[in-house]
Amino acid sequence: MPNLSYLKALNRAIGDEMERDPAVCVLGEDIGVAVTYATAGLLRRFGRDRVLDTPISEQAFTSFATGAAMAGMRPLIEFQIPALLFLVFEQIANQAHKFSLMTGGQTRVPVTYLLPGSGSRDSWAGQHSDHPYSLFAHVGVKTVVPATASDAYGLLVTAIRDDDPVVVFAPSGALASRENIDFDALAPVPLGSGRVHRSGTDVTVVAVGHLVHDALAVADDLAGSVSVEVFDPRSLYPFDWQGLAASLERTGRLVVVDDSNRTCGIGAEIVATAAEEMRLTAPPRRVTRPDGAVLPFARELDLACQPTRGQLRAAVEKAVGV
Amino acid sequence: MTAADLYRTVALIRGFEQRAVELVRTGVISGGIHPCTGQEAVAAGTCAALRPDDVITSTHRGHGHVLAKGADPARMMAELAGRTTGLNQARGGSMHAADFGAGVLGANAIVGAAVPIATGAAWAMRQQGSDRVALAYFGDGAVSQGVVLETFNLAALWRVPVVLVCENNGFATSMRPADTMAGSVLGRAAAFGIPASAVDGMDPQAVLDATAEAADRARSGGGPTLLECVTFRFDAHHTWEHTARPRYRTDDEVAAGRARDPLEIQGARIPAATRAAIDAETAALLDEAVRFALDSPHPDPAGALDHLYATGMRPRAGAL
Ligand SMILES: Cc1ncc(C[n+]2csc(CCOP(=O)(O)OP(=O)(O)O)c2C)c(N)n1
Q: CA nearest B136 in A: which residue?
């Protein structure tokens, strides 16, 4: 079976959708030569009319895509750096996202924002290491964070086909992951559908993005003593609350591991919702970046801000009381 | 477009704004409005040069643009009054009025924000093989916004069929261009190689002529044009101003601005009898628009977040 890389899956998803739907077009900086690989080969296949190398002007081309979407296109924008989302927060959160409601349903804005390489890339320092998915979930923009190659394919396809704006965070920590999967088995993954990567009975670990792989490793480590269920929400907004509730019915204990800042991070929302609405037999726990973290440069400082397997293991043990 | 038709549009906008201001005063319209009284020539002249299938994006001061592009005045008034029959089903109000059927992709409350949206729409229409054009309105204040200048670059670079209309009414709220703008509006266009000209924004016919040329250039593949329509806002920046009464211009200045009234300039070009007939027609139409708005139902609060997602996805409630 082919060994599909996460990046190849993103690339394939874009290519397949451009093939399927002539309204899909791609905009971004250096996408012609595909510096991130996600757009590799697309310029040759689809030409300059549908693969647009843009000037370095994120604010203009982000709302340009909004206008193009209103006129019938389905643009995908690639951003090279997750912090660029801060530049275009107005264009996404305050423009694209609000048009459906503000116009009383007269229009739709099917734009996909793709971030290949979000989160820390080890020592890319303060302005290149953000993972701002919680901000988008907070304002209600559809937000997905795939952990595996097949989910990267399936969620990106769904994002492109969705009639609303969708931000797709592809964590740098997951880009190198591979999966043995038949290309024919690749399929769209609905938003709001979580995935249980490993079932267990003692504790549910909700892991976001690349941290799914860490959670699985910790679950393996603890296999003799603690039975860990690993739940990957896959999309953070909408969130699969039913799937989480079902998991907590089985385990009654919750640990969230999430690579965003602690205050007002998605982890806080998961814990709060579980506490309000779901079965919990022990206090829930969170493993996150520190409050208000800005990732420092030196590798050991950078890593010190990110959730670690050690922290997760300790949180799991605390939750189950061992 | 005949002289009488141009006059009719100016008169419609003038009458609409007068009635809207009254409805703000009596509390029917909440939140207030940014009246465009005095600037009608820009809306009337530009839209007269467009086809029904062309599109526009507008500003916080957008009533004139939306009406001139062909939105129904009654549904527009109902939108301002927050009624379900409004253009946006009461979800947008004055600053977001949109009528996609008439080619109005929305007024926008963030200064300059709609300029890239019109430009993207224009690009998409060309991609789809049509010769439709888009027109973006923005104020003199907006030309200091980075996103607007970034968009000038994109529009010129890709020869996008967009007409860029700067409504220079001499003030950004209280601030004069001379105090806030280095260089000039036309200089900004020149920097990007965009053909640009200043237009008498009090004269509907002059605006029409300039826009027709710009729209032709866009349609025939010549790319963007910038028109700086020099105009004057007769009234407050926003109806709130009548309570706060900030002083930023003199009575003489206002009197001089008002002396070049587009209603009179265009009115003088048609026979008195024609003008009187249009005035009567317009008054009746607007009385009916107000009646329609007042008779229309208020929305059901239970639907406050209807349309939040085009896919119909429902958000969770804020309280359990
Ligand atoms: C980006 C942004 N900054 C500030 C405001 C607040 N504001 C609303 S209208 C306005 C003045 C705009 O001036 P101009 O563009 O000349 O348009 P005019 O009001 O004269 O029609 C300001 C500052 C805003 N809406 N958006």
A: A67
Q: What is the pLDDT of residues B103-150, one digit of tens each?
A: 999 999 999 999 999 999 999 999 999 999 999 999 999 999 999 999
Instruction: Look at residue B320 in the predicted model and tell me its pLDDT.
Output: 66
Cβ distance of A57 and B150 shorter than 8 Å: yes
Summarised one tens digit per residue, pLDDT across range A121-164 is: 988 999 999 999 999 999 999 999 999 999 999 999 999 999 99
**B293 and B80 Cβ atoms separated by less than 8 Å:** yes
Q: What whole-number distance in Å separates Cα of residue B122 and Cα of residue B136?
A: 10
Q: Which of A61, A104, A276 sits opposite B91 (nearest CB)?
A: A104
Distance B236 CA to ligand 1 centre (A): 13
Nearest by CB to residue B88, choosing from A49, A55, A102, is: A102
pLDDT (average), residues B292-308: 96
Distance B140 CA to ligand 1 centre (A): 9
Indicate which of B125, B138, B147 best probes the interface with A, i.e. most A CBs within 10 Å of its own CB.
B147
Q: Which residue of A has its CA nearest to B120?
A: A64
- Judge whether A158 and A191 are in contact, CB under 8 Å: yes
B161-190 pLDDT per residue, tens: 999 999 999 999 999 999 999 999 999 999
Closest-CA distance of chain B to residue A306, Å: 30
| Distance separating alpha carbons of residues B47 and B39, to the nearest angstrom | 13
Ligand 1: centre distance to CA B230 (Å): 17
Q: Are B9 and B208 in contact (CB under 8 A)?
A: no
Reply yes or no on whether the pLDDT at B242 is more than 90: no
- Contact residues on chain B for A64, CB-CB shorter than 8 A: 116-117, 119-120, 123, 151, 154
Residues of chain B neighbouring A49 (CB-CB closer than 8 A):
127
pLDDT digits (tens, 9 = 90+) for B212-225: 999 999 999 999 99
* Look-up of token digits 């801060």: A86
Q: Which tens digit of pLDDT belongs to each residue from A223-239?
A: 999 999 999 999 999 99
Decide the pairing of beta strands B196-200 and B225-230: parallel
Q: What percentage of chain B carries pLDDT values higher than 70?
A: 100
Whether residue A100 lies within 8 A of chain B, CB to CB, comes out as: yes
Band the pLDDT of A306: cuts 50, 70, 90: very high
Catalytic status, residue A131: no
**Whole-number pLDDT of residue B142:** 98
Q: At what angle do helices A6-20 and A149-161 cross, to 10 degrees?
A: 30
- For residues B277 and B256, what is the distance between their CA atoms, to the nearest angstrom? 29
Q: Does A159 touch chain B (CB under 8 A)?
A: no
Q: Ligand 1, closest atom to CA B39?
A: 21
Return d(Cα B82, Cα B76) in angstroms, integer.
10
Phi, psi angle pair for B294, to nearest 5°: -65, -30
